[in-house]
Structure prediction request, 292 residues.
Amino acid sequence: MYTIDLAYVGRGLHEELVAYIADQQDYYADEGVHVALRDGCSWDEQRLRHGATIGLGRALLSRLADGIPWVALDVNTHRPLFWFLARSGLTSLADLAGRRLAVHAPHTAPGCFARIVLRQVDLDPDRDIHTLVRPPGDYGMDLRWLHDGRIDAALVGSTMAPEAIAAEHGWQVLAWVGDHFQIPTVGVAVDPTYIHPDDPAVQAVVRAHRRALQVIHHEPDTTVRHIQTFLGGHTADEAQAHYETFIAPYFTTDGQADLAVGATAITAVAAELGIPATVTAAEFYRTATTTP
Prediction:
């Protein structure tokens, strides 16, 4: 049996769902690979690059900014699962002008994506908004700050169903990032310096993840049951609604990246980072089929 380390670099459905399904359904074992799922959220790039990673957004930023030659082999979705959640009284992203927003750092993938979305509504994230930089996590503190009025809005991820949280507290989901910015994101990526893309263990992981993607589309009851593991603070109906709204319609069926979407996204990310777009979509997102 092959072995490999696979690191997630964020928490929640966005990063973990496909790998979790592959593990729980024994697809890794079926494909003859032992996968050690690792929490790489706090790892630096040098440690991360010695194994496979789920975080394609971070890998792309790393390739553009640091020249680490990551290659993405599998893509779960083109719609990042992050939302702008706000206290009552705000109804649009434009309303964030002059407000206090908790958001990830600019050099992180979700922070970069959020800044791109804010600029689309003519908001300069450095001048028009009072930002509080927050690390990724379960967003519990962000929700507390929203409730206490310390902040007016927060960028939150998929450790919750934000639409259900908003309904519970009388808050507002101002925007889903995936509605405003598309990028092939979360899946499987490797640095060929250490792991060849055609390594049998890597290809076995990719095949297992593509089987998991089929479960998402063809076995909704099974998928929602797995989703409830992540959304423990939500009802079964809320988990079902979240699946139907954000997961089922937008996760890929075959793990393939849309290179046109990828090209547009790379241009936007490089511009936001203020660096040249030194890699093409075809160079970063590999669309060849897996080896048997």
User: Anything to note?
Assistant: The chain has a mean pLDDT of 96.
